[in-house]
Design a protein that fits this description.
The chain has helices spanning about 5-15, 20-35, 40-50, 65-75, 95-105, 140-150, 170-175, 195-210, 245-250, 265-285, 315-330, 340-370, 405, 420-430; strands at about 85-90, 110-115, 155-160, 190, 215-220, 225-230, 290-295. Helix 5 runs parallel beside helix 6 (about 140-150) and helix 5 crosses helix 10. The chain is an alpha/beta fold and about 425 residues long. The chain binds zinc ion. Zinc ion binds near residues 240 and 318.
């Protein structure tokens, strides 16, 4: 990892290296001696030469990581630099996948594996990322050139083949299981950004077989709705636990030759944003990783649902993974959940923040000779409305939660009768 803030200085030393060693050393010392005003930068560069994986948190206009490292300073992320050691596979480098790839590259991710066999066409220009002069290039080669230009610290691995081709299965599996940042380690997360169900089913199968966590994404053919979904083998639903009707009934896919699907860069950008955001939260263990977020562009409506793993899932590997997870839960309790450590870390961080806020309030109160009482889980000494019980002056909220906040509209949740089988649900849907 080079320090973007001093890339130019480092480059000077590297360019000088072909000189004979004594001349090179003389050149370095000459440069050091006559560059006293820049000596701090240069020493910093030399430091980074010995540890290429360090992000700089230095607040400088020429440091590409200063604003990302600020997330750590502000307590949002515990260890932002961990992203350098993360590897993500993106299946499909189209309107969603390419934008997610750019976002993660700009965030300094260690490695991206891009899978797509398509070529860039002028018909793609209504979307983000690709440029007209890249027409005819494979999407993954075009993406590699662009992304490496944006951030040379991210390793981009282009994979220009179809993951659904039977003769590519072994290559595909091998890429995922050895695609981590460290040699011979698996990827950390797979993002599925494809436009067909066959590829989604292939991803589902490989992730179930090899216990790889993944996120699915999709944008509707009419371009005004989309979704993202987290799939943790055995823990959450797999893609076949609750398949779309097209998959469940074996109907021909919506995408057919000669049918031109609509697409909007706005909808794709929003879905890509949610997917990249959830990826960051998952990899860096902050916030809540959503299990499912839908997007209805016509109403600006974002439903969130919880989809349980189906014990009668038609995929037998899924059922086996569910049994493994159930046994793990019986042995270890909540700690068996793949996101447990992240949840605990978040709760601990929130507790530290509350303790720090209370300490600050106590110090303030001591200074002014007043008493601070803990009035509840998330508040310090502030009661809603009315004066204090002892007749002292009241404290007002900048925003007071009303009844309408407490009661979410019924339509925000999907009503599920858990006793009903998936077959009965499908029969009901067909009848609608
Ligand atoms: Zn399943």
């Amino acid at each position: 990892m080079s320090n973007g803030g001093c890339r130019g200085g480092c480059m000077y030393l590297i360019v000088s290296s072909p000189l004979p060693l004594p001349s090179f050393l003389f050149g370095v010392f000459f440069f050091l001696f006559f560059s006293l005003p820049f000596s701090n930068t240069l020493l910093s560069c030399l430091g980074h030469m010995t540890d290429q994986k360090k992000f700089s948190a230095e607040v400088r206009d020429d440091n590409p990581y200063s604003r990302l490292m600020a997330l750590q300073r502000m307590g949002v992320v515990e260890d932002y630099e961990a992203i350098r050691h993360k590897s993500v596979a993106i299946i499909g480098a189209g309107g969603v996948g390419s934008v997610v790839a750019e976002m993660l590259t700009r965030c300094g991710i260690g490695k991206l594996l891009l899978f797509d066999y398509d070529k860039v066409e002028l018909a793609n220009m209504n979307r983000l990322f690709y440029r007209p002069e890249q027409q005819g290039m494979t999407k993954v080669d075009a993406a590699k050139a662009t992304l490496e230009g944006i951030n040379p610290d991210t390793t981009i691995v282009p994979c220009a083949y179809s993951i659904t081709a039977v003769d590519q299965w072994d290559t595909f599996v091998e890429s995922l299981l050895t695609g981590g940042v460290a040699p011979q380690t698996p990827i950390d997360l797979l993002l599925c950004c494809v436009d067909n169900f066959q590829a989604r089913l292939t991803v589902n199968e490989v992730c179930l077989q090899h216990r790889l966590p993944w996120m699915e994404s999709g944008v509707a053919e009419n371009a005004v709705s989309g979704h993202i979904q987290l799939l943790l083998p055995g823990t959450t639903a797999c893609y076949e636990c609750c398949p779309p009707l097209v998959v469940a009934t074996g109907m021909p896919e919506a995408k057919r030759e000669g049918v031109c699907a609509a697409s909007l860069p706005t909808t794709m950008g929003i879905v890509a944003g949610f997917l990249a955001q959830n990826t960051l939260k998952y990899l860096l263990q902050f916030g809540t990783v959503s299990e499912y977020v839908g997007y209805d562009a016509m109403r600006d409506y974002f439903p969130q649902v919880h989809i349980k793993a189906n014990p009668d899932c038609r995929n037998r590997t899924c059922v086996a993974r569910q049994a493994e997870y159930a046994a793990d839960v019986a042995a270890r309790g909540e700690a068996a959940h793949p996101l447990h450590a992240a949840r605990q870390a978040r709760l601990a961080r929130e507790e530290r923040e509350r303790a720090a806020a209370k300490a600050k309030a106590d110090a303030c109160a001591a200074e002014w000779g007043i008493t601070v009482e803990d009035k509840g889980k998330h508040s310090l000494a502030v009661a809603q409305g009315g004066g204090g019980q002892d007749g002292q002056g009241e404290v007002e909220y900048a925003y007071a939660a009303g009844q309408e906040d407490a009661e979410a509209p019924a339509e925000a949740y999907v009503q599920v009768d858990e006793s009903e089988s998936i077959e009965a649900l499908m029969a009901r849907m067909k009848g609608m």
